[in-house]
Write a structure and sequence with these properties.
Layout (H helix, E strand, L loop, with lengths): L1 H46 L18 H6 L11 E2 L5 E2 L12 E9 L13 E11 L6 H6 L2 H8 L4 E3 L2 E3 L4 E11 L4
Antiparallel strand pairs: 1-2, 1-3, 3-4, 4-7, 5-6
């Protein structure tokens, strides 16, 4: 009888282990994707030194992350550096194969605070920038999605419209996401 009670207790403990592992994996993903997303915001803040006006300095050549976001105000953009490994280090998403370990993928968007077309004191000297990063909750690679999905496709996915990733259709419930935003000021010196 004692062995039966011990066996029932052991089965319960073993089944709880699965939930503990899933919780640990989720926490690790949330921490790492938050750090990768914050590093994108820091990169954009560093690039803002090169943002000298609202007409000629907004290029991917001078500002690979911030430039496309400002040049296409209000639209989610795929910056040059948008894929990240599980440890948060960047990976070239455009060159990544489907089985490469791309854990997180980011898109950026910016909106001028003020009139970007104006000149003088009314010209926009700041922008609200957002970074949206996503990951597969199962821990699988998101290399294909990061390489092919535009910002609009990711927006549609998060709004509930399934998206094609090669021969597979993916749903919102398969992904976790982190949104971070900040205000970045133009270099006015």
């Amino acid at each position: 009888m004692g062995l039966a009670i011990l066996a029932v207790g052991a089965v319960g403990i073993v089944s709880l282990q699965r939930f503990a592992v899933m919780g640990t994996m989720t926490s690790r993903h949330i921490t790492n994707v938050t750090n990768a997303t914050a590093s994108m915001l820091e990169r954009m803040s560093a690039e803002a030194v090169l943002w000298t006006d609202n007409s000629t300095s907004l290029s991917a050549a001078t500002m690979p992350t911030l430039g496309p976001a400002l040049a296409n105000q209000g639209q989610w953009q795929r910056p040059t550096i948008r894929g990240f490994l599980i440890d948060g280090s960047p990976i070239d998403a455009d060159a990544a194969a489907d089985n490469d370990p791309v854990a997180y993928c980011s898109h950026v968007r910016a909106v001028f605070l003020g009139n970007p077309s104006a000149t003088g004191p009314t010209q926009a000297t700041a922008a609200r920038v957002e970074v949206r990063s996503f990951y597969a909750k199962t821990g699988r690679s998101v290399a294909r999605e990061c390489r092919t999905w535009t910002g609009d496709a990711v927006e549609a996915l998060f709004d509930g419209t399934p998206q094609s990733a090669g021969t597979v259709t993916r749903n919102r419930s398969e992904y976790g996401t982190i949104f971070l935003s900040t205000i970045i000021r133009r270099n006015t010196q």
